[in-house]
Structures
1.
Amino acid sequence: MLGLGSKISKTRRTTPGIVTDNLALRHDYKSPKPIHQVSTGAASFVRSGVDSISLGFGTALTPKTTGFTTCFWAKTNDLSSSQMVLACDNGTNQRMYIGNHAGDWDFGWGDTAWASGSADVTTEWTHIALIHTTSTDTTQMYINGIKDSTRTDTGSGTFNDGTFGGDFVIGKHGTGGSTYAWDGYICNLGIWTRTLSQAEVKSIMWKNYIELTSDEKSSMVSWYNLDEETNTSGAAGTGGVKDYHGSNHGTLA
């Protein structure tokens, strides 16, 4: 069953290779120690339960004209199954998805199939950013702040022209039922209708929403800490998750 805020917590400690700076954890890339997510908690997804969060706002985005970025922290418990962290699909080949496919961090965009990355998925916390540049029809994936793969596609502008009917879903394929359901943890997921720079990605990956600058929030659509359960309006309660930036509060499924 999907749990929020109860499975993962961050303690104030100094690990070899990791330096704490208030709420942020800075990674020393020379250290063999793994990177740690920055969060007070995380949403826990169970693949067998097809846990997911429906965000329900696909028609609010127009990356065909503005560009698009999403980023998040994720940690899987299952390396053997293909799984999606975030997906949006209207069922007619207009889509965006990102997750573990055949053991790699891969993504799909527009009317394209999976685009293979070069980084293997591990059971460690990993920060992912997917950035689409409209002018070149190019999509790039960054893993832990470093560019991993690039794909240029013709026709991918079909996602999204403002008439897209699909909704964003965290934790599974948008229209695929149990297909590609996530098993593990996700936190600090943000969505922008603009192209973020690598410098911004590297800065944002170490922050909760409250720590983001006004420039980093520019053209942001939504941000989900995924560290607590609320009701579907974002207020205290159950059954939903809060959008800390906008009003696209999620519904647990």
Note: The longest strand covers residues 68-76.
2.
Amino acid sequence: MKVISLFTGAGGLDLGFEKAGFKIAWANEYDKVIWETFEFNFPKTKLDKRSIVNVPSEEVPNADGIIGGPPCQSWSEAGAGRGINDARGKLFFEYIRILKDKEPLFFLAENVSGILSSRHSKAFEKILKEFQSLNYNITYKLLNAKNYNTPQDRQRVIIIGYHKKIGKKFEFPKENEIVPTLKDAIADLPKPEPAKNKNKTNGDKLKIPNHEYMNGGFSTIYLSRNRVRSWDEPSFTIQAGGRHAPIHPQAPKMKKIELNKQIFIPGKEHLYRRLSVRECARIQTFPDNFIFKYRDVADGYKMIGNAVPVNFAYAIAKKIAKDIKNYKNKHSK
């Protein structure tokens, strides 16, 4: 079974689908900072580096499915929230264009929870109607990755369409009863290295690839709430920026002084460091042999924070694989 990957990023979604038995036949990613990482970890996949706007549908290979997460910044509750009025928000319609022209058996689109907010309701309804007009039975749901073998609170909207000729809708897999914790994810890792001057990477000098953390102060926004989760809890959401990476669980939880102001516990300040790039990758359930290539440590955090957690992707991909195989088996007979 083959899939094509749009808005690929570092490849968390792709890796989850590979684990479920799919082959990533073709991928598209416009951000040049990501290219080296993707090509290193997916050496057999053709990576198209053009903006999706400039990719004619006839140059996209045929496949059983299309997967991808159109840029989510314009839908984010933390961002400007321009949604469909933002150039990045409009990229959703490029996804729909290729889906319409290729008409695979299924598609998966992933986005932030903000796409369901009231200010985006009309735009989201328009997107769903576009999908439905293309002969697909649509299912969507707000899921938390922690319920799918991922040690992290991470809410994301997953939209899945099955071509009507399959004769069914996708049904989301059951949630896990046990939520993995920070202890499960990162307790075995030794102390990481601080980034070099100007937060440049230590590169090949690291004993564990990417096990380095960003230096620098913490903004008033960062200090407005607790940023520490305990060892026995799942992590906060891994964001696409090192400045806002959670604090390592070796530190005690921050102390609230007043509304929107918290401080580090006096005398314990040395324990408060950001999670390393590798620790964030572990929390996003990337395996240790998945290497992130960058010069600026900030780019490592960005690639990981923008990715779909691998285990989360795998749980969904495994269910899709079963349904598509069943359809193909019946169709071949």
Note: The chain has a mean pLDDT of 93.
3.
Amino acid sequence: MNLIRQKVKFDKKLIDQDALKIVKKLTKSGYESYLVGGCIRDILLGHKPKDYDIATSATPEQIFKLFKRSRIIGRRFKLVHIMFSARKFIEVATFRSGKVKTSNDGLVLRDNHYGSLKDDVFRRDFTVNGLYYDINKSEVIDYVGGLKDLEALKINMIGKPSERFEEDPVRMIRAVRFQAKLNAQIEPELIEAIEKNSQLLANIPPARL
């Protein structure tokens, strides 16, 4: 896929100001930092996101030092929650790389490799969730054709569907969920892979489902 950087100016009312503050502080401190994933997808569709995720080149320990009201969570892959109130926090993740390793019941066994922005893109599940927003340049960064798929309302996998479902079978449920939420169409290759791999869901703990 070719890299696309597309100028986009969002309605400021759709962007959480606390999320912007985090991105700006990380960037000012010398780290790459972007709004990413579902929040960008929803804003491009004109919806106000419920959650905001941030991806950065800073490690969890570096993030933790920058933000007083923060905590590091997770063992297999560390994340940082930056607190703004008793009920509000924003999750910040370091760019990931490599393949996630899961057990037969879908539990993550190994997921602890940091990487670059490009590495991180190809760790995400669907193209419409693989979009990053550079607030300084007002640009959406798209390595995987997510802008095109979002415009056409198509659900496409990043990478080979069967391999990605073997990594995490719950992605099959996510595909159907996004089909319903976005009123989108799942690509035929993806439907075929879901039919082929649906039995993998039998091993997933009910709590995850």
Note: The first helix runs from residue 17 to 28.
